[in-house]
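Thread title: Can someone regenerate the structure for this chain?

I was given the following input by a collaborator and told the matching structure tokens would be attached. They weren't. Posting the sequence so someone can regenerate them.
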Amino acid sequence: MKRRVIAIVFFFLGRGFAACARLDSRVKREIGRWAEGTVVTLRVAPSGPQTSWSVRDGVFRHLGAREVEPTLLVTFKNPEGALPVFLGMKGVLQAFAEHRSTLAGDISLGMSVVRCLHIVEGYLFPAIMTRRILPSPAHREKSVVAAYALTLAVSSAPVFVEGGAA
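Best answer:
Regenerated them for you:
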């Protein structure tokens, strides 16, 4: 049951990240700094679920749960450690501090992903939850309704590379 709940959250988080890459200038800027071919995966050990995103051919895509070779892998040690994070009861930073998760890959890319996830959570979660789990809840540049609509409609976004077009 816990794995199913996390898989559902990953579906919306994955698509929400792609939606925010279209809506929010800060997410666009962060992703624009990622190298071509970057693949980021969030995984729950020992056997999933997982969700991934990639930057390929100038497009940021939610890859869903398919198996990929990640550039950056964030692994939650078990469903019990992951569930409070993905239900908005604990923040990602707190999960790292409590050793609920590990990071394999470039730490600067990991911090970029965390900054993006904070913004994405700010759009997807109600304000009462984000005040509890985020160090300082991000200002929403667009409406929550726009974010929800795009979350349901898109799974990719163009990447605007810093200093030029994609």
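DSSP finds seven helices and six strands in the chain.
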